[in-house]
Amino acid sequence: MYQRKQYSVLFSRMQEKRRFIQVIMGPRQVGKTTLIKQVVGALDIPFVFYPADAVPTSQISWISDCWNSARAKMRVEGLKELILVIDEIQKIKGWSEVVKKEWDSDTFFDVNLKVILLGSSRVMLDKGLADSLEGRFERIILSHWSFAEMRDAFGYTLDQFIYYGAYPGATALIGDEERWRDYISGSIVDATINKDILVNESISKPALLRQTFELSAAYSGMELSYNKLIGQLQDAGNTTTVANYLSLLSQAGLLCALNKYSVDLARKKSSVPKHQVYNNALKSIYCEKPFAVAIQDRALWGRLFESAIGAHIMSYAYAGDYKVYYWRTKPGSEVDYVLEKKGRVIAIEVKSNNTTANEGLAKFTAQFKPHLAFIVGDGGMTAEDFLSADPADLFK
Questions:
Q1: What confidence category does residue 205 fall into, taking pLDDT thresholds of 50, 70 and 90?
Q2: What value, to the nearest 5°, has the Cα angle with vertex 131 and ends 125 and 134?
Q3: Assigned CATH topology for domain 6-141
Q4: Interatomic CA distance for residues 281 and 88, integer angstroms
Q5: How far apart are the C-alpha atoms of 136 and 23, rounded to whole Å?
Q6: Spatial distance between the Cα atoms of 135 and 146, rounded to a whole number of angstroms
Q7: pLDDT band at 217 (very low <50, low <70, confident <90, very high)
Q8: For residues 250 and 88, what is the distance between their CA atoms, to the nearest angstrom?
Q9: What pLDDT is recorded for position 41?
Q10: Strand order through the sheet with 82-87
Q11: Is the pLDDT higher at 17 or at 198?
Q12: Is the distance from CB of 324 to CB of 317 less than 8 angstroms?
């Protein structure tokens, strides 16, 4: 079975003396549970696994019950160490305080119980970690899979990666596109919206949230103002509501709205957003043309190509600690993606075979003097190379 690079990190840490809680973070269906299975299967350390999926959000005592069961197992079986794994822990309200109490108790009484927490809601995990677990944890962040990983693990071609995206669980279904679309829509989109957003947030218009996702995903890689977005929604709300829904969708790892790059913070926030999925499968399920036809449509394929580059950039943004924007002054004078980290700026222009001449990169370079400015695609870095690398490495 294919091992992602995070495997060796977690394997090594679990062999160390008990020191930190390991927090595995990442969106749905990127391989968090598979990573755990691989690691605990290779270690010579007993483990117990408890998923929180079916546990009521208010049942905070469930966490202590899991902990006590693990301790009892250690005593009964005379174990010197044990790994406790709790999946989707962020769904339990007030989880971090209980984890802190149980972890500190084990530390005080020298109980060698090593703990791994998994979660798909980055914002809710971060809040709990910051509130209660300062100095007690380490993060391991799983992004969506890169082209190189999908190629090496499943034999994907570049064109397949651009169209079908990077969900490992869907790879066996691409030969039946209707079934593939049903899987992405049900197992990923519906599961994320219903279990990660609606359960934890007060949403006045769930149908509008879903419509916002569908339309924004279809427009991935393109600019669309909030007013125009609302104009195409059946259950329209105001711009503030839609902007909030887009923020929640971003926190859940589905898609985001990129602001226009500017040195003026107010202008960034007031700009027309550019919509961007985190995995290109989320755009392609709303593509009316199947793979074999879409690849022959130069205009459509150009949009899919640009969205795939953007999805790769966004997938690594959280782990890489960089922000992403776009830049535009007029049609034909734009930069597709602008990355910013600690005062350094990187400008990336995407060129497919369908792209017309664009003077934006030269203008942006002259105005902002970026750390790097380059093309991905025709006349620049190959898409294969870019989609196989971690964009954060560009800041080195």
A1: confident
A2: 90
A3: Rossmann fold (3.40.50)
A4: 23
A5: 10
A6: 31
A7: very high
A8: 18
A9: 96
A10: 47-51, 82-87, 113-119, 21-25, 137-141
A11: 17
A12: yes
In the numeric block, the tokens 């030969």 are attached to 175
pLDDT of res. 214? 95
Question: Tokens standing for 296?
Answer: 């022959």
For residue 100, give every residue at least 6 positions away whose Cβ sits within 8 Å of its Cβ, in sequence order, or none.
Answer: 132, 133, 136
Only one residue has tokens 């309200």, namely 93
pTM, to two decimals: 0.92
SS3 for 299? helix
Tokens 């490495």 belong to residue: 393
| Residues 90, 128 contacting (CB under 8 angstroms) | yes
Long-range contacts of the stretch 122-126 (C-beta < 8 A, 24+): 122/25, 122/27, 122/251, 122/253, 122/318, 123/251, 124/90, 124/200, 125/23, 125/25, 125/89, 125/90
261: tokens are: 């790059």
Question: Hey, where are the domains in the chain?
Answer: 6-141, 147-395
pLDDT of 362 strictly over 90: yes
* Average model confidence (pLDDT) across the chain: 92
